[in-house]
């Protein structure tokens, strides 16, 4: 069984908070590549930022996600990813038309269940690493909600409930597989 689990969906939908909860419970978690890249680029005055050079940003996210996925192989227990390769490849393909998604997703598979955080305007906020608006986040969610099933994943939309209950929901869903 593939124990690498993607949590994707709408920006600002509670993914990072959920991953922190899963980490507190002793599960391995992998922070979103995009946030790590933004921090690195801001610290070094780099340009691979989504608001400066989205294609360069997406390419870096793909590289980082592949490395993250490889590092999780063989790890005991579940590893939860805050976004990952498919999100990054989908962004690059949407932006440039480069047909990277099918090839990369076939080479680097995750657990068959992908958990999506739906748009949740009541908790959405921008910050120095997330500068896009809610409408852009909703559009991205729509693309991802269509892409994952097309790639053969079972999409599970997370309910808008307290973070501990969301973590329980995911863990219960995985045990039922």
UniProtKB/TrEMBL annotation:
Domain annotation NadR/Ttd14 AAA: ranges: 5-166
Pfam family, one: AAA_28
TM helices/strands, residue ranges: none
Superkingdom of the organism of origin: Bacteria
InterPro entries: NadR/Ttd14_AAA_dom, P-loop_NTPase
Name by which UniProt lists this protein: ATPase
Organism of provenance: Rhizobium acidisoli
């Amino acid at each position: 069984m593939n124990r690498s689990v993607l949590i994707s969906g709408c920006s600002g939908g509670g993914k990072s908070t959920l991953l922190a909860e899963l980490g507190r419970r002793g599960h391995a978690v992998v922070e979103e590549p995009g946030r790590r890249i933004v921090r690195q680029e801001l610290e070094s005055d780099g340009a691979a930022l989504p608001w400066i050079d989205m294609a360069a940003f997406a390419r870096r996210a793909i590289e980082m996600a592949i490395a993250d996925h490889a590092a999780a192989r063989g790890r005991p227990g579940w590893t939860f990813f805050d976004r990952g390769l498919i999100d990054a490849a989908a962004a690059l393909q949407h932006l440039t038309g480069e047909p990277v998604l099918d090839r990369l997703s076939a080479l680097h598979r995750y657990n068959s269940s992908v958990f999506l955080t739906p748009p949740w305007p009541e908790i959405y906020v921008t910050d120095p690493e997330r500068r896009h608006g809610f409408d852009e986040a909703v559009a991205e969610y729509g693309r991802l909600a269509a892409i994952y099933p097309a790639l053969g994943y079972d999409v599970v939309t997370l309910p808008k409930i307290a973070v501990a209950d969301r973590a329980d929901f995911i863990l219960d869903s995985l045990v039922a597989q």
